[in-house]
Design brief:
The protein is of the alpha/beta class and 267 residues long. It has helices at 13-28, 51-54, 56-59, 76-86, 105-115, 143-151, 154-159, 161-167, 170-173, 193-198, 211-220, 245-262, and strands at 2-8, 36-43, 65-69, 91-95, 99-101, 119-127, 133-134, 137-138, 178-180, 183-184, 188-192, 224-235.
Length: 267
């Protein structure tokens, strides 16, 4: 049995509807026992989105749908925790609204977890909106790597390509279908629900950014996290630096909390 939580914030309803459509197709590939038992959408927007009206035809294809609206933006991790706390499934999918899921992604991910009891979560093979590779599995970040990412200067990235590629598991990703990852992106994580509950979900002191890295570390205290190339998605999200000063503030604030808790790494 699978449950799914999606956190929205002033999200484009057409993009959300595209995600839900891809989720319906992926769900149809699962055996009856593993299909989505409940879809939970938590809306953190200032004003409620008309999700129930706009997406009604596609929402009706799910067995059970719960729509929750927060009066204030409670943050990404805390919103997902609302869903995690009420779930009683075997597997739970943490999901962004700006994702498209390949038709076989859920089938392959759940089959892998069924075959590998020591794996507590899996991260997908992803591409961006231009079909270029996205590296969602990462190693513990250094301040130097984060600086390179925030600057986004091509010639600097080329000069330090080796450091960047090591951080993003570039060699492993291009030579192996499966490998163990230290940290994974929160835009799509397929987890064992009991393990997710045992670590109490996301740490709610992170409003936005780094909550997925902190969760990864907690999950790895119990078992392994794997990158699975046969579990494919497309993610249309952008970097914090492209979203304005408020997001840069959120990023830096969360980065400080993360390093204070788990240790500083310069290079």
């Amino acid at each position: 049995m699978l449950t799914v939580s999606i956190v929205t914030y002033n999200s484009d309803l057409e993009i959300l509807n595209n995600l839900l459509t891809s989720l319906v197709v992926a769900n149809s590939k699962l055996t009856a026992v593993n299909r989505i038992s409940e879809l939970i959408i938590i809306d953190n927007s200032n004003q409620p989105l008309s999700i129930g009206d706009t997406c009604k035809p596609i929402l009706e294809k799910f067995n059970s749908v719960t729509l929750l609206h927060s009066k204030t933006n409670m943050g990404y991790g805390r919103a997902h925790n609302m869903a995690i706390n009420k779930c009683h499934s075997k597997f739970h999918l943490l999901l962004n609204p700006d994702v498209l899921i390949h038709c076989d992604a859920l089938k392959n991910g759940i089959a892998f977890l069924e075959e590998q009891p020591g794996i507590v979560a899996v991260s997908p093979c992803a591409v961006n909106g231009q079909n270029r590779p996205l590296y969602l599995a990462k190693k513990y970040p250094s301040l130097f790597v984060l600086l390179l990412r925030s600057l986004g200067v091509n010639w600097l990235n080329k000069c330090f390509a080796g450091i960047y590629r090591d951080y993003e598991y570039y060699p492993e990703r291009n030579s192996s279908k499966i490998f163990e990852a230290e940290l994974v992106s929160g835009c799509f994580i397929l987890c064992r629900t009991d393990v997710l509950k045992s670590v109490q979900g996301f740490d709610e002191k992170y409003f936005l950014y780094f909550e997925d890295f902190a969760l990864s570390i907690k999950l790895r205290e119990i078992g392994k996290i794997s990158y699975l190339s046969s579990m494919k998605i497309q993610h249309f999200g952008g970097e914090a630096s492209r979203k304005g000063l408020k997001h840069i503030y959120y990023f830096l604030s969360s980065a400080f909390k993360f390093y204070q808790e788990f240790g500083w790494k310069i290079i």
